């Protein structure tokens, strides 16, 4: 197989995987997740590794939408309270320190939303809402998730970035914002 043939075979396979995940996404859950974002006074986000990178990009865009957003490990992050929304990305549902912070967020009175590819592993005692992204994850994939030829949690991590971007576009429309309004909130000191 030539490099060109292998490349084309791989990108077509990966694109089919993403299409399958998009088609399997529960849109009712998606809408409920967006409702939580719209209603929140403040939003706190957390994720680790590559799924954390996707979540950090989402936090940035939520700020561009005009929401007050904080990343859990930033030194300037304030305490959570009732009326706040905590969004934790926990692909496998089993990442210990995310579970700990989730428990603390719940105790603070914040609403807790978990985004995961393994909903059956999430501790529902501390989750007010679970958004199941049906993409295979590293270390604990839900049997309903789309399987992948890719290593570890690639499909979930990649898909999360695209799904979050689509959510932002839907929220932009729902909130009757423009690209220009979002751009006006972009950091201007770089």
Automatic annotation (TrEMBL):
Q: Name one GO molecular function term.
A: carbohydrate derivative binding
- For the SIS domain, which residue ranges apply? 33-177
Which PANTHER family does the record match to this protein? 3-HEXULOSE-6-PHOSPHATE ISOMERASE
Q: Name one GO biological process term.
A: carbohydrate derivative metabolic process
Describe the family membership recorded for this protein in Swiss-Prot or TrEMBL.
Belongs to the SIS family. PHI subfamily.
SUPFAM superfamilies documented for this protein: SIS domain
Domain of life, per lineage: Bacteria
Protein's name according to its UniProt entry: 6-phospho 3-hexuloisomerase
Source organism of this protein record: Oribacterium parvum ACB1
InterPro entries hit by this protein: PHI/rmpB, SIS_dom, SIS_dom_sf
